[in-house]
Amino acid sequence: MRVVVPQPTGLPDEYQAIRDAGHEVVFGREYARGSADRPYSDRTPWTEERLIELCRDADVLIHGATRRAVMAAAPHLRLVVGPAIGYERQDVEAATELGIAVANSPSVENFTGVAETTVGLMMQLGKRYKHKEAILRRGEWGTDADRGFLLTGKTVGIIGLGRTGSGVAKRLQGWDCRLICYDPYISPEKAALLNVEMVDNLSDLLQQSDYVTCHVVVTPETTRMIGEEQLRQMKPTAYLINTSRGQVIDDDAFCKAVNEGWIAGAALDVFWQEPLAADSPLRNLDPIKVTLTPHNAATSPDSRVGNLRLAVQGAVEALRGDVPTNIVNPDVIPVWKRRFGR
After folding, report:
1. How far is CA 103 from the centre of its chain?
2. pLDDT tens digits, 287-326
3. Which among 169, 218, 250, 313 is placed 20 to 30 Å from 60, CA to CA?
4. 2-104+300-340 is a CATH 3.40.50.720 domain
């Protein structure tokens, strides 16, 4: 059977487990000499027409953004898997209707990196590193007004206590800060194991926290869950960190909150539109108050390898007739088993 990889990450040997299982790997880009993080020279965006032609005979597609037309044109396609945690760019609804499984690749390395990054951004914001560097580069020196803040004694509000949110809580153990969480799908017992106090609602978390950090997936419930009403509930000395997905925050309300001083500052690694548009109002916010990174603050060679490892694992599972471990559309399983199960 055939596994198609339109835009490979890593190097050819990292797909060897698929070949060892007796299957073919077809790359959509010709490999060029270079690093595993940039293994090919052609970075032209894929058009739907080109993807349809490439993937027509695919049994598995390793790709992070697959639309209905591509899947519908591949009669043998049993799995679409992206080498990343996020899957919001996959047309999961269409895949389910077509009897195709969709999987993601939530590697330990990936969500560990996001948790580490979140704590680092808390420190960067609270210690006011960007401000201090700016005054030094202007030829000035520090004054009493330039002091940052202790994390000790502060309240950190974690929205979502899944793998990444739990990782943040674990890494803040021993910092002598209070950890609270809002997550209606997590039990108080799990939170207690992490020394995290559950709060009853999002408003309570926002009003009490000195740092608010978002770790949720995109759903109708979480889209724009941080809007004007919520930002006004935060302390004017509080910081907002979003390393989950851009759709969690209402950009217009956020810009207003920063410009009018409802909050002290923020760090964003994710955006509604990626890449972030050149004319986005977010780019005009005070860079001392707001840190913007291009959805790569947590990436590392380890996370790339880990994500691809899980994507390859999912491909091998599906090709032998097993439901992929990291399937994200479990409603398709009965149909999928009738079509492809062993």
Report:
1. 15
2. 999 999 999 999 899 999 999 999 999 999 999 999 999 9
3. 218
4. yes
Q: How far apart are alpha carbons 81 and 140 in whole angstroms?
A: 52
**Alpha carbons 54 and 2: distance in angstroms, whole number:** 11
Helix (H) or strand (E) holding 81: strand 79-81
CB atoms < 10 A from the CB of 274, how many? 12
pLDDT digits 0-9 by tens, 72-119: 999 999 999 999 988 989 999 999 999 999 999 999 999 999 999 999
How many whole angstroms separate alpha carbon 8 and alpha carbon 62? 8
Which positions are annotated as active-site residues?
Answer: 245, 274, 295
d(CA 223, CA 216): 10
Task: Note whether 2-104+300-340 and 108-292 share their fold.
Answer: yes
Q: Is the peptide bond before 275 cis (omega within 30 degrees of 0)?
A: yes
Q: Which two tokens stand for residue 105?
A: 């690749």
> Where in the chain are the domains?
2-104+300-340, 108-292
pTM, two decimal places? 0.89
Answer yes or no: is pLDDT of 156 > 80.
yes
pLDDT digits (tens, 9 = 90+) for 108-149: 999 999 999 999 999 999 999 999 999 999 999 988 888 999
Short-list 201, 214, 212, CA closest to 262: 212
Q: What does DSSP assign to residue 273? A: S
Helices 108-126 and 163-171: angle between axes, nearest 10 degrees: 50
Could you list the beta-strand ranges (E) of 201-264: 211-214, 239-242
CATH of domain 108-292: 3.40.50.720
